[in-house]
Amino acid sequence: MESRAGRYFETLSRLIQSTEVTDNLGRRLRLEDAFDNVAATAHSTHDLGNKIMFIGNGGSAGIASHLAIDFCKNGGLRSLAFNDPSALTCLGNDLGYQSVFAKQLDFHARAGDFLVAISSSGQSPNILAAVAMARKRQVGVVTFSGFSESNELRRAGDVNFYVRSNEYGFVEIAHLSLCHAILDLDMGWGLVAEPARAAVS
User: Fold this and answer.
1) Are 71 and 180 in contact (CB under 8 A)?
2) Could you tell me where the beta strands, DSSP code E, fall in the chain?
3) Model pTM?
4) pLDDT tens digits for range 62-81
């Protein structure tokens, strides 16, 4: 009988590989094409002197911070996450938590920037408010969501990645893996075959 651990990782693999991607008109995109689209947009954003901004709550905030530094350090792309504790607590206290990301976009975003919005449920009010501000500022948007297939965030981006699961662990790991895949493939992963290992006698 297959182990529970084995079934867990098979489920995770299936969910990642079956990620559904749509454009701003709801048209389906191939996963590889969506990766290429996001990578190309990230490069053109950087090349024009603009920036990539990552936002998320809780586990998604961890993903946002993780990927912002990876896109900078490994990808050479100007990027940041809006997770500074003082900014979050100040804006949350003064304006309400729904505004913590939208107000930072109001402060810092300019036309031609690029927003990566991550929310497991796709229903977080502060993420949706930030996307609305991004549109107001003429900022491109890519979204990562899960849970209900009718979640609002799934329809809000230029490219929308949706993981069909109601479990936080699966959705969060899938989102992190998808973001890593975009960067790693863009950096050339898999283009050069690994050298053959010498046989061990």
Assistant:
1) no
2) 20-23, 28-29, 52-55, 79-81, 114-118, 140-145, 159-162
3) 0.93
4) 999 999 999 999 999 999 99
